[in-house]
Amino acid sequence: MRLLKDGMKRFSDQAVFYQGLAWIKVQNKDHAEAIQHVKDGLRHAPASNELAVLLIDLLIDQQQNQEARARIDDLLKAGWNPTLPNYLKARLAVADKEWNQAIKLLESVRKDLGESSEWHGRVYALLGLSYRQLGDHEKELQAFRKAVHHEPAWMTANLGLATAFLTNGRIEEASQVLEPLRTAKDLPAEYWILQRRVQFHRELRR
Predict the structure, then answer these.
(1) pTM for the full predicted model
(2) Residues of 72-81 as b/e, b for ≥16 C-beta within 10 angstroms?
(3) Which of 9-13, 126-130, 198-202 reaches the highest mean pLDDT?
(4) Which of 58, 143, 68, 76 minimizes the C-alpha distance to 103?
C-alpha cells in the first residue's frame, strides 16, 4: 500500500494508483474508503474511464443507487458508447429485482462486447443470477458455465456454477466445481453451505 501511496503522490494524474488503493480497501471491506480513493482519482484524472466505471460499480455495491444512476447518465451525456453504461444499468436492474430488464440489457451488452473483452465473465454471471430468479435453470447453468470459462479463478462465478449444477440435480458435477476451491483463502459462507447441500443430496440418494 505504501508504494501505491508514494506513486499517487509522485504521479497524481495516473489512475492506476487510485485503482490499486481502492481494491485494497474493497478486500478489507472498507468500501467507503474505496469510494473516496476513486473519487480522489477522478479529481486528478477526470478522463479515466476505468475509474468512472469502478466508482459506479462500488456505489451499486453499497446500494447508493441514486448517485450511481446520475453518474451513468453523465457518462451517456459525455458521449460514451452505451455498452458499459448498459452493463451498469443491468446491475441496477438486478439490484431492483427487475430480472427481465436486466437480461435484456445484458444480452445487448454481450453482443456489443469484443471477443477478448474482460467484461464477459461478469455479464454472464449476472445473466445466470437473473435466469435463476426467473426459474429458467437451464439458461442459468449455461450462463454460469460461460462465466467460469471467461474467469476460471473467480469465486463468485464458480459458486454460481455449483449452485446451478445442484439446482439441475447434477450433484457430482457440483462437487467437481467445489472441491478445487477448498484450499482458497477466506472461503465465503456460501461455499460451505453448498458443500453441505452436496452431502445432503448424496445422503438422500443412499
Answers:
(1) 0.87
(2) beebeeeeee
(3) 126-130
(4) 143
User: Which segment of 27-31, 153-157, 175-179 scores lowest on mean pLDDT?
Assistant: 27-31
Q: Measure CA of the first residue to CA of the last residue in the chain; give whole Å.
A: 52
User: Around 89, how many Cα atoms within 13 Å sit in the side-chain half-sphere?
Assistant: 20
Q: Which long-range contacts (CB under 8 A, 24 or more apart) does 43-51 make?
A: 44/12, 44/13, 44/18, 45/13, 45/14, 45/15, 45/18, 48/15, 49/80, 49/84, 50/15, 50/19, 51/15, 51/18, 51/19
The DSSP output letter for 12 is T
Q: CA-CA distance, 72 to 85, in Å (whole number)?
A: 6
Segment 97-111 mean pLDDT: 96
Question: For the CA atoms of 58, 62, 67, 68, what is the dihedral angle to 10 degrees?
Answer: 50
Q: What residue type is 131 in one-letter code?
A: Y
Q: With 90 as the cut, is the pLDDT of residue 28 above it?
A: no
Three cell numbers written together for 16: 492506476
The CATH superfamily assigned to 1-80 is: Tetratricopeptide repeat domain (1.25.40.10)
Q: Report whether 106 contacts 130 (CB < 8 A).
A: yes
- Residue 98 amino acid letter: E
